[in-house]
Amino acid sequence: MNTVETEQLEIKLLLEALYHRYGYDFRQYSQASIKRRVLHYLSKTNHDAISALIPSLLYDEKSFKSFLFCVSVTVTEMFRDPWFYDTLQKEVFPFLKTYPFINIWHAGCATGEEVYSLAILLKESNLYDRAHIYATDFNDRALQKAKDRIYPLERMKDYSTNYQKSGGKFSLSDYYHAQYDAVIFDAALQKNITFANHNLATDGVFSEMHLVLCRNVLIYFNRDLQNRVLSIFRDSLCYNGFLCLGSKETLDFSGVRNSFIEVARKERIYQHKNDRGRLER
Amino acid sequence: MRDKSYQALVIGASAGGINAIASLLSGLSTRFTIPIMIVQHRLPVLNLFLTQYWDEAGIFQTKEADDKDSLQSGIAYIAPPNYHLLVEQDKTLSLSIDPKICYARPSIDVLFETASDAYQAHLIGVILTGANNDGTAGLRRIKAHGGLTIAQEPNTAEASTMPQSAINSGAIDKILPLTSIASFLNNLL
Fold it and tell me: Whole domain around residue A95: which residue ranges?
């Protein structure tokens, strides 16, 4: 067995151990990125082999929490892919307007930048007051940051540009207050958002939704886990509800493809239509 | 040459790379039938233009990589803007939005290191023009796994820092002027 194979085995054992000890399931994550993240965590410890992490992570819950943060942190930005938000407003919002009450699930919301982006656009379309956004992630530290609504001031220039390209009607600075090198977004944006811990690898459906957004999360999963998660989204969505994925993610090769029609190809927006695919089988 | 078969080629470039990669791809022969993966640092807006430009330059179909693509011969896969490109053990591609590395996403190191894990001694890594040191760590991994590493001769590069950094690290097997890299690669297969 060469080094690469030994490392694969060590990672397999580590992920298996963590699943049985803590219930966090990384076993169906894409191997290449989980390995990079584990090695990154390893480099910050004084261990020199992946397998040496097992005892310390099993016995020391605090170490596990740092590990969890380290291996799950994703980098997001406000109005990432502005063209997506522009199309969302044009193609999806008119449908949402026909409902008296709108349930939205933002799955894998990380530190919240994209949740507040959506909240702002809903406000500008007079949809916010009848909307409820469930913003979920399995990383409690990320969720706390999302609840705090505080982001670095230096990012606002890029975010403002993104906001304008997304079809924002006013100025992004209308929604935050700056102090020193940070900004805090208005508490009013958070009024109809519930931040909650939900793990896509192990948890299931919790409410009926009109819109589900899960962007750049599926790329971290293998095909089996992708299919599990997409089934949860389908089962959560009402008839005619919308699903939005990341710009490099697709339903095309998934088991739920026949339950959806494509609304916007480049933006990866799909609409739940029927379960024909399931019935035909 | 060493008696072994190469199964994939990875290319990394930064400043000046758009023309350098076009020149390299246009020199490869029809016998060069292993998958190619490319990371070029760039502004996101340039991407569609890039894929087209390189597609026209070479005999290869050039494709912006999608999540879970299976690597196929005769296709050059380009890392999408704002994503890292990774290779899985089963020779499929995956993407990530992990933090930037050396200020770059896509990162050359991320592609080279994961491709090296997947292909080990059967991988060729080529580092071209660029003004930073991305790629050096990845080439060290390729060399450590017994793969073949090539750097563009720095004085033929629009920006010499990147190939020079790789050469200085001792990770490079062959230093070649840009115009000779394609014919050298053709003779390997």
Answer: 82-280
Distances from the Cα of B101 to the Cαs of A37, A64, A76, B97, B134, in angstroms? 13, 24, 15, 11, 8
Distance between terminal CA atoms of chain B? 11
In a domain, A271, yes or no: yes
- Distance between terminal CA atoms of chain A? 43
Could you say which of B84, B107, B116, B134 is catalytic? B134
**What are B151's strand-pairing partners?**
B127, B175
- Average pLDDT of chain A, as a whole number: 94
Chain A residue numbers with beta carbons less than 8 Å from the beta carbon of B97 are: 74-76, 216, 219
Q: Please check whether residue B63 is in contact with residue B78, taking contact to mean a CB–CB distance below 8 angstroms.
A: yes
For residue A245, list its beta bridge partners.
A214
Q: Say yes or no for a CB contact (<8 Å) between A75 and B96.
A: no
Q: What is the pLDDT of residue A72?
A: 82
CA-angle at B185, arms to B180 and B187, nearest 5°: 100
ipTM given for this complex: 0.89
Q: Are residues A245 and A122 in the same domain?
A: yes
Domain-embedded: residue A27: yes
Q: How many helices (H) and strands (E) does chain B have?
A: 6, 9
Confidence of residue A281 (pLDDT cuts 50, 70, 90): very low
User: A101 with A122: CB under 8 angstroms?
Assistant: no
Active site residue B69: no
- CATH number attached to the domain at B8-188: 3.40.50.180
Using the beta-carbon criterion (under 8 Å), do B113 and A36 form an inter-chain contact? Answer: yes
Q: Dihedral (C-alpha) B23, B28, B30, B31: value to the nearest 10 degrees?
A: -170
Q: Is the peptide bond before A100 cis (omega within 30 degrees of 0)?
A: no
Q: Considering B14, B107, B160, B165, which one is annotated as catalytic?
A: B14
> Number of residue pairs across A and B with CB atoms under 8 Å?
63
Domain map (residue ranges) of chain B:
8-188
Are A208 and A238 members of one domain? Answer: yes
